[in-house]
Amino acid sequence: xxxxxxxxxxxxxxxxxxSCSSTKIVPENVISQAGRTPTNTxxxxxxxxDATAPMQKDRIDIPLVxxxxxxxxxxxxxxxAEPNIPLLGWADFYASIRPGVPAELAESLELESTExxxxxxxxxxxIQIYSGPSPAMADTVSKQFRTWSAQxxxxxxxxxxxxxxxxxxxxxxxxxxxxxxxxxxxxxVKRQFPDAWVVYDRVIPxxxxxxxxxxxxxxx
Length: 220
What we know:
Blueprint: H1 2-35, H2 40-61, H3 74-78, H4 90-96, H5 103-121, E1 123-132, H6 135-152, E2 153-154, E3 160-165, E4 168-176, H7 179-189, E5 197-202, E6 216-217
Antiparallel strand pairs: 1-4, 1-5, 2-6, 3-4
């Protein structure tokens, strides 16, 4: 029992000695650090800190600039600069518009107009003098008209056209673009062919008489 007590007391004594030695070192270190003479290195460090302090303060107090100028990059250098075009009002824009037809549309309209003119040249009227089932009769009437027109129609020599259109053979004479003129000539033809009347038909443009030609009945 006394042996255990002695050991316990020895452990407590060792702990107290260690704690005392550690607490003693701290004040000595602190005192030595606080009471030591400053060196040249310490002076230079302190001067640099004093010089940096106002610079840091000035940097912090500078207001932030939100409108930063964009630094052009290589990609921006390749993009062409936009021209400085002044803003125009609607009145200026409208005044600059030149009314007219685009070239492509104008060419299309001109081509269509030409086609219509050519088509109209082949459209017109003729005078029908026979319609029946007999082809022989159609040929006879056609020959009779040619003989008669050569003797009694002055100013114009109408052509004859014999064709079959179901269910009859027909004989048409003359070529006219104007219905009124075809009607006036049909009144002359009625003197010999009472069944003559004006019909719509395709015509041959170069066989159409000129407007200045005077067509009339001629007595022998």
